[in-house]
Design goal:
Number of domains: 1
Radius of gyration: 16 Å
Helix content: under 10%
Order of helices and strands: EEEEEEHEEEE
Number of helices: 1
Structural class: mainly beta
Length: 204
């Protein structure tokens, strides 16, 4: 997953007050950056546009990466905690390794969610404007998300700590009622552009 989205952070915050709405005109963080030959998937870019990059590599003491397979498949997102602006990107490959679907959504109507008892903090957000980068005919499932509301939260269980960043489990709410394990990662980091919450899941 080469996504720049929801971190390097020193401390976790609770959610900002819910009266801060997302600025939908804000530019999305570059989700394709990074040197995939050197970074681990949990590493954070030092350019000020915090991102987590999945390179399919493993390293002792770091989160396992599916046996080191060379897959970038998955989704990733980010939210700036001061402006409450963000985006989510999806990237999936064909059997031959070529990109089959790559697209991103602006996140809008980001508000605090208070119904996740297993979350340190959580939000609900609506998938807004979509940008399709590559579609070989398999993006329909994700295109259908436009205008749909989803919940995402940072859990209480630590997955790993690496270079000063603590990664937690991810919870998601897809039906508006139940929070379930998102089988992903969540962290908060400081960047030159401000504090960023990053999250995502591989192969989902």
């Amino acid at each position: 997953m080469r996504f720049s989205v929801f971190l390097v952070a020193s401390t976790l915050l609770g959610c900002p007050s819910a009266d801060k709405s997302a600025d939908t005109s804000a530019g999305a963080v570059d989700t394709a950056g990074g040197d995939s030959g050197s970074a681990n998937w949990w590493e954070v870019d030092d350019t000020g546009e915090g991102y987590i990059e999945d390179t399919g590599k493993t390293d002792d003491g770091k989160p396992d990466d599916d046996g080191g397979k060379e897959s970038e498949d998955g989704w990733s997102g980010y939210i700036f905690t001061e402006s409450w602006t963000g985006a989510v990107e999806f990237l999936y490959s064909a059997d031959d390794g070529s990109v089959a679907c790559e697209m991103s959504f602006t996140l809008t109507d980001i508000t605090e969610a208070e119904d996740c008892s297993d979350c340190a903090f959580a939000v609900s957000a609506v998938f807004g404007d979509v940008e399709v980068i590559t579609d070989t005919g398999v993006c329909d499932e994700f295109l259908a998300l436009e205008g749909v509301s989803r919940g995402v939260g940072q859990g209480l269980s630590v997955l790993a700590e690496y270079e000063g960043v603590t990664y937690y489990d991810l919870l998601i709410n897809e039906d508006g009622e139940s929070w379930v394990d998102g089988d992903g990662y969540s962290a908060v980091v400081d960047s030159e552009a401000g504090e960023v919450w990053v999250f995502g899941a591989k192969g989902k």
